[in-house]
Amino acid sequence: MKTEGPRNNQVPSTMPISKYRHFLDTNTVELPDRTWPNNRIVKAPRWLSTDLRDGNQSLIEPMNPDQKRQIFDLLVRIGVKEIEVGFPAASETDWDFVRLLVQDDAVPEDVAISVLTQSRPEIIHRTIDALEGLPRATVHLYNATSPTFRTVVFNNDREQTKHLAISGAQEVLAYMEKKFGDTTVAGFEYSPEIFVDTELDFALEVCEAVMDVWQPDENREIILNLPTTVERCTPNVYADQIEWMSRNLSRRDFVVLSAHNHNDRGTGVATTELAMLAGIDRVEGCLFGHGERTGNVDLITVALNLFSTGVDPHLDLSDIDEIRRVVEHCTNMEVHPRAPYGGDLVYTSFSGSHQDAIKKGFAARAKALKAAGGDENAVFWDVPYLPIDPKDVGRSYEAIVRVNSQSGKGGIAYLMSSVFGMDLPRRLQIELSRIVQRFTDRHGGEITADQLWRIFADEFLPYSVLEGLQPWGRFALRGTNVSAEDDGSHTILTVTISERTSDGSAVDRKIITDGNGPIDAFVKAIEQLGVNVEILDYVEHAMSAGGDAKAASYVECNIDGQILWGVGVDPSTIRASFNAIVSAVNRALR
User: Fold this and answer.
1) What residues contact residue 478 under an 8 Å CB cut-off, 6+ apart?
2) Domains of the chain
3) Which of 5-9, 51-55, 374-378 has the lowest mean pLDDT?
4) 8 A C-beta contact, residue 472 and residue 462
5) What is the DSSP secondary-structure string of 382-415?
6) Which residue of 54, 241, 312, 427 lies most exposed, with the fewest beta carbons within 10 A?
C-alpha cells in the first residue's frame, strides 16, 4: 500500500482578485472584549415583515391589491405584529393599499403598520397622511450614511448627512403630533442606511442626534435599525458592530435595536443570529427570504431555528405548506425544494443509510414515548437527519416514508416522463408514490411501465378506456363552449357534464357560467353541482411535439377540505384542464 503526505495542489485563479479588498481594510471594529460569542439566544426577537415593501419591490411582477391583502392576512394569522406595507409617498398603489386597510378595518389593535419615508418634508407629510385612522403606526425614516453613498451618490459630507437625518426626524415628530393627536399609537424608526459600511463613530453620532429629537423614554421607545443593506462582511464582523453600538448608545433601555439583513453573501440567517447574540431586539425580513438581489433574511428559517432549540418563536408556523402556497401564489416565486423547513424535499432522504437511521430513530422515539406514557413533551426530539419533527409544521410521517424510497418516487417519475410523456409535479409524484406503494404492499413484485400506467389511469383518469379498467367517476365532461364578452373582461362558458346516479344511469346537465377565465368559470359550474372547489396549484404541458400532440394538465384542489390532485389529458389544453378538475372532484367523491 502506498501513502502520501499533505498535498497542496491549489492552482492560482485567473480571476481579477486584486480589484477587491478585505472589508476590514476600510471598516474596522475595535472590540477585543466582545461578549457575544459566549451568549445564548433564549427568546425570540420582535418580528417585522417587509414582504409587502422590500419583498414586493423585488418581484418581476409586483403584487396586485388582492395578493397584497392575502399576504397581509397571512402575516396577521401567523402572529406577526409589525408589518411594513410600503412606501405610500412614492407609489399610488402603496398609498391605495394602506387606505384600503384603514377602510376595511383590517388591522388588529395589536398590529403596528410600518411605512417607509425619505427625509423630505413633502414625502414625510404624504406618508403620515396615509396612516390616518390606523390604531398603531410606525414611520420609518432613513437616509444613507456610508462614505461611498455620501461622496458618490449624494455628494454630501458628514455634517450634511447628519443634518438630513435630524431635519427628517423633526419633520416626522412635528407632523405626527399635528396629524394623530391621541388617535393613533405612533412609533418612530430610524435607519442609517448602509450601516454595515458606515464608520461606527459616525453611525453612533447620527443615531444620537436623531434620538435627541425624538427624546425616547420609558413610554416612548425608538427603533434604531442597523441594516446590512448589502451584505459585505462575515457575520462575526456585523455582530461586533452591533455589540459596539449597543454598548455605546445612550438611553439604551429605551432603544429597540433592529437588524435588517440581506443575503448577498449567502449568510443572512447567520448574520441575523449572531446579531441576536450581540444585542439585537428586533428582526426585519421576509417569508422564505424574498427581497432585492439574493433576498432579505428568511424569517421562516430564523424562527424555526429558534423553535428547533426549544425557544418559542411566537409565530404560528404549524402549517408550513399553507404558508408556502399563499406566498408562492401571491409572489409568483417558487420556494426552492431544498429551502430550509418549507421546501418539498427537506424531510426526504434518498440515501438508504439515511432512511435506515430515520426508521431506527422513529422506533427509538416510539419506545421512549411509550415509557413516558405517550407524553410528547416528556421526550426530547432526537431523530437522525430530522432537525425538527415534521408533524410540528404540518408534514405527516406518511409523507416521509412515502418519499424516502428513491427507487419508488424517483423511478415512478422517470417512467411517467420518459415512457408516457407525463411530467408530474413533485407533490403529485409523492401522492402517486403512495398509491403505488399500496399496490406493491398488496401484490408484491416489480411494477412494470404498463402496470404503472394502469394504476395511474385507474386513479386519476376515472373514465379511462384502457382494457380491463372500469369507469368509476361520478362526473364526466361531455361538451364545452368557451367565449368572451365583447370587452374581453369575462369568459362565458357553456358546459355539459354527465352525472352518474345511484342506479348506475347517467344524466347530462347543461350549465352556463362566467368567470375571469375558463378555469374560474368551470369551477363555478362544478359548484352548481354541489361541490366546493378551490384551485391551489396548476401545471400543464404538451405531451409531445407536433400538431396532433395532446396536453396534460395537473390541478391541485381543495375539495371540501380534501387536498387532492387531478389529471386531465386532451388535445385541447382547456378541456385537459377541465378534465383535471373533474378528476380531482371524482377522487374526492370516490
Assistant:
1) 496, 497, 498, 508
2) 43-331 (3.20.20.70), 352-460 (1.10.287.1400), 475-589 (3.30.160.270)
3) 5-9
4) yes
5) -BTTBSS-GGGGT--HHHHHHHS-IIIIIHHHHH
6) 312
